[in-house]
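sorry to bug you again but im stuck and you know this stuff better than me. what follows is a protein written twice so to speak, once as letters and once as structure tokens for the fold. id like you to explain what the token line says about the fold, in plain words if possible. anything you notice is useful, everything is just below.
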Amino acid sequence: MSMSQIERPETTFDTYKDLFKTIRMRREEGILEMQLHTDGGPLRWSLLAHNELERAFLEVGRDPATGVVILTGTGDEFCGPAIEPGKHPNRNIMTPETYDPIFWESKQLLPHLLSIEAPVISAINGPAVRHAEIPLLADIVLATDDTFLQDTAHYPGGMVPGDGMHIVMPLLMGFNRGRYFLLTGQKVSAAEAHSMGLVNEVLPRAALKDRAWELARQLMLQPRLVRRYTRIALTEELRSRMQGLLGYGLALEGMARMKS
């Protein structure tokens, strides 16, 4: 049987749009908006959100009908809650068996995001204090003027920042600033993030979503293959870094989380 004769299940918007409890999706004009939430409010990071984002990015990447993706949050926060210093609830409670599904998902989550062959715009609608690297990996990053970025869940919370933070933040911020950010729990305001090049535009909250859609429509003016292949070209370096460093960082994070 030739490859052209192999039948594969077709991935369409209808096959995945209602699968996720923490992601509300709508698609218009070929533009897919993914809005993160918990019970209709700001996203509260959890094992469920971790699992669903990995699966959702995979499904979106398999759907050829999506031309541009907008990733945003709900209410006045992009994601939380903040972790008190040294008090991460999952610190030092893992066994190899309980860590294994987290390890597997974490090896796929950021690579699945980067493998979406459509330009990605993030609209950060407020503080991002858990996994801020996710919106920062978008091709265009917008933020409200009251946004700040922080990593409260890893080193300040008592964990190794090995699940992608150790790659993304030093790469985007510069090695010294990135390491300082991860080690100290530094809060980076929207204005500071803009000056560092982490954020492309800082906007009033009321203008954020409209600007994201305006840019998405602008990107949609180019032919499909121009959009797809530009996205591939612009993410190749990031994907190669993930391939070489992500699993190693996750192994270190996991070892430090094991019961002593």
Observations:
- The CA atoms of residues 127 and 147 lie 5 Å apart.
- The radius of gyration is 18 Å.
- The beta strands are 23-28, 31-36, 43-44, 68-72, 79-80, 120-124, 140-144, 148-149, 188-189, 201-203.
- Residues 224-257 form the longest helix (34 residues).
